[in-house]
Amino acid sequence: MTINRLKTISDLNAWRAEIEKSGKTIAFVPTMGALHDGHLSLVKAGLEKCDAVIVSIFVNPTQFAPHEDFDSYPRTIDKDVEKLSKAGVSAVWLPDAADIYPDGVASDIHITGVSEPLEGTFRPTHFDGVATVVARLLRAVKPNLAIFGQKDYQQLQVIQKMVAQENIDVTIFGAPIMRDENGLALSSRNLYLSDDEYQIAIQLNKILKLFADQKISEEEAIEKLLDAGFDKVDYCTARHKDDLSEENPSRVLVAAWLGKTRLIDNMPMNK
Ligand code: AMP
What we know:
The chain is of the alpha/beta class. Helices cover 37% and strands 19% of the residues. It starts with a strand and ends with a strand. Bound molecules: adenosine monophosphate (AMP). Residues 31-32, 38-39, 41-42, 148-149, 151-152, 175, 177-178, 185-188 line the site of adenosine monophosphate (AMP).
């Protein structure tokens, strides 16, 4: 079966109508492209849980601050579509900014509470952009299930709250983090790493694991990250797994810089 390459909202609606006619359930995987095995694991989960999978590829301008890497974010559309086709995806939707933001590129959803700490402190407009684009994508695709990675753990919690707040009728599934052979969480931004930086990057999950196992404290974890060669640690902290407050911590989360690359990771705490 060849993959349907959808561009406009009317292309999407036509595909959607066909699927609806056949009574199939739809799983949706929103992405920003530069696809790797982490993304493909979400596709696999979608194929297991629903009859048809649709993936969107859209580098969403509203979730990048002006000084961030929107322009240089890796764009590898043809390779991406080939991977999705091989993976058995029914449709890939490649909207333009004008399809998603017909009235101008701006965020119009804010999620209080869970969007505020951690990433919210360091990227204050980021989750408004994420919540806005995901709400618009979900309202356009109308899937039964939408799949997000636990790699972006805080994002997953923000999206859960967003669909409740915005009353969007969809089930959200959080898929486990895919890692490479050295434990580095797969990320499109890993493409930015030089060979030397990669050797430092693979310490991130190992140091986080020591912290998750409570073998080292938060302060020791930060010190180890800096000793390993990270340039700056935005946060490395233990939080409540749902609201990310400091009460009853059960998940450790980290964001650290290597040169121009910002890496994030998280894992459950072993208590
Ligand atoms: P992105 O293209 O970076 O916006 O990611 C699209 C989706 O893939 C998000 O739900 C991410 O959380 C998820 N994702 C990215 N990397 C991984 C990974 N290593 N393992 C599992 N899911 C991932």
